[in-house]
Amino acid sequence: MSPLPGTAPPACKLQIDGLTKSYGSVVALQPTRLEVPAGEFLTLLGPSGSGKTTLLQMICGLVEPSGGRILIDGRDETRTPVHKRDIGLVFQHYALFPHLTVSENIGFPLRMRGVAAADLDRRVRDALDMVHLGHLGDRFPKELSGGQQQRVALARCFVYQPSVILMDEPLGALDKKLRERMQYEIKRLHRETGATIIYVTHDQEEALAMSDRICLMNHARIEQIGTPHDIYARPKTAFAADFIGVSNIFRGSIQRDDGGAPILVTGGGRFRLSAAALADGAGQGEASLIVRPEQLDLDGDGDNEVSGRVVDTVYAGSETRVLVALGDQSTVTVRLRRGMAPPPLGDEVAVRWRSEAGVLVS
């Protein structure tokens, strides 16, 4: 979360210092360093086995690290038992007590902390209002929808104002429409409370929509950390480009044309490279050129071009994508401009893009 102009940056809420975890010869998390400012919404994103859940479980104390330290507000909490860490947890399965009402479920962590009855009732009412469930306090979990149960789980976590809130795929069991609605609810709660949230998901769209920063993980280590825009628009590796959104990836070697301008020579053609791409990416040797579907054009200008045959059209409501098979057996994806009719299947087309649209990674 970026500070406002003229203000000091937020203090470091959570610091991961060389944290690692191994199970015998299997490394679940390579030595990892990470700092999370107070009030940030950080998403741990990656495929299964990337280490994101292992990292989350060590932060909350469910898994003991093999090495390294966990500091919260500057205090070393590496060996602190789970119940003594000032951390809130929200899981995919709501874990509500079926024999307690909604209000009793939300008030449970306050009762466990010895909060006085009058203060407890007020805080429970405030939490119910925060998640728009003030009229359902006397109901039992079985009488609620999935989305309502998840909001109860969120209220139960936020009610005692933990130092850090950890969420492990909390929306994974919900359908797409409800999941999107709950994404908005969680973002709203984050804005209103200023809580520090670490959120685990494997859903790229969810991570892009919700996060202040994304920590992309792969092979038990951090692949790239940045804002959603940075990771999407300026990926540092081919994995980051391929995992976040849709990418067209051209692999080749960096050379110079007859005029000395940098080009990428691939099996499918020779592509001009911008000075910015060279500055951000590989300088010589083998490299991959990343071009997003919205940067490609079927009837526009561009100093790079490939030709191929239309093999499929994908209509997704808000956008239409065209898949074009190239002569080297690879396929590129083009997002059509709004209002543009897709070409017929089998048509031969030219796909163009401007060199400054490409991102170069090693």
In CATH, what is the class of the largest domain? Answer: Alpha Beta
Question: Order of strands across the widest beta sheet?
Answer: 6-7-8-3-9-10
Question: Total helix count?
Answer: 9
Distance between the termini: 29 Å
Oligomeric state of the chains in view: single chain
β-strand percent reads: 25-35%
Level-2 CATH architecture of the largest domain: 3-Layer(aba) Sandwich
Q: What does the overall shape look like?
A: elongated
Number of domains: 2
Would you spell out the secondary-structure blueprint of this structure?
Elements (H helix, E strand, L loop, with lengths): L11 E12 L2 E12 L3 E5 L6 H9 L6 E6 L2 E2 L10 E5 L10 H11 L4 H14 L15 H13 L5 E5 L7 H18 L3 E5 L2 H7 L2 E6 L2 E6 L1 H6 L4 H6 L4 E9 L5 E5 L2 E4 L2 H6 L4 E7 L12 E12 L4 E7 L4 E5 L12 E6 L5 E3 L1
Parallel strand pairs: 3-8, 3-9, 6-7, 7-8
Antiparallel strand pairs: 1-2, 1-4, 4-5, 9-10, 11-12, 11-14, 12-13, 14-19, 15-16, 15-18, 16-17
What does it look like?
With 362 residues, this protein is of the alpha+beta class. It has two domains: 222 residues, 3-Layer(aba) Sandwich (Rossmann fold); 116 residues, OB fold (Dihydrolipoamide Acetyltransferase, E2P) (Beta Barrel), CATH 2.40.50. Helix content is 25%, strand content 34%. The strands form four sheets. A six-stranded mixed sheet has the order 6-7-8-3-9-10, with helices on both faces. A five-stranded antiparallel sheet has the order 13-12-11-14-19. It has a four-stranded antiparallel sheet with strand order 2-1-4-5, covered by helices on one side.
